[in-house]
Fold this sequence. Notes:
The complex is a heterodimer of chains A (about 270) and B (about 70). Chain A has about 270 residues and is α/β, with parallel strands linked by helices. Chain A is built from 10 helices and 8 strands. In chain A, helix 4 runs parallel beside helix 5 and helix 4 packs across helix 10 (about 195-215). Chain A is globular and about 55 Å long. In chain B, the strands form 2 sheets. A 5-stranded mixed β-sheet of chain B has the order 2-1-7-4-5, with no helix packed on it. Chain B has a single domain (about 1-65), classed as Ubiquitin-like (UB roll) (Roll).
Amino acid sequence: MRDFSEEELERYSRHILLADVGVEGQDKICAARVLVVGAGGLGSPVAYYLAAAGVGTIGIVDGDVVDLSNLQRQILHGTAEVGVPKVESARRKMAALNPGVQIETWQTMLCAENILDIVAPYDFVIDGTDNFAAKFLINDACVLAKKPYSHGGILRFDGQTMTVKPGESACYACVFHEPPPAGAVPACSSAGVLGAVAGMLGTIQAAEALKFITGAGTPLFDTLLSFNAKTMDFRKTKLKRNPRCRVCGGEGIARLRDYQPPVCDLKG
Amino acid sequence: MRIVINGDDKTFAQGTLSISELLEIENVSQPDQVSVQVNGEFLRSSLYGTIRLKEGDAVDFLYFMGGGR
Lengths: 268, 69
């Protein structure tokens, strides 16, 4: 086990106090490698809480620069960072919060060609993207690479998330099969989203990653958690793997392909 | 006819309903916006017009949510 310094024991004391985490759990967190795809509405709270938690290595993928319209929800970025690459802005905030974590950045958009290489060195992946092409690509890559991951989606006052253990629990394509036709489902950039909803869902995804790493509790495997922030109704829908799933069932997929260009523009 | 929709019991005057008819009654304006699970099995959208629901069936409408940034 890692030799925790006095400063680390103090910093992580509230984790260490948890019976389900303890020094052993914190040791696992400090040794873990998590990839956050998208440094936006979901990626911001996820990456910030993972940095606070002391996740040893956090990768961030995002090809965008900070836009003024991002600041209503993307809490990793500040007014002074408008125009700065999001991965750089994210790195600064996370390093200021916890200099003990390693931050690896990719200022790029994921595609079928690069995703497997980027995902390979990580233990857990967070989907914080804003379009179905990316969400299905992340699912496919995580199934191929057998990487556990957290799906997240938000729109207006609603959020949904599920945690996937490829080969064992239902994958995103078991539930949603394939991207909806262009224009069928509105995007946040046209329909809007309550900023705090991104925070609600992102912190659930961060908690799922930490649960997976430490083994505490039961992750949202075979379960879609959805909520509506207007009524504050939360609901869990039980799912099961589809043996005929075009991605993880039967013969499944052998290689990746890019899906149709996203329904919403990439600037989210 | 009683159907459990997203966990809630609902009673319908109709004696028989297809998924398409139920989507319409439940104000799902575009079937492409949801994935539909009946008694734990996901249905292809090509079957929405032909599958008839039975008394007590559990139907989940799971909405596509593509946002995140």
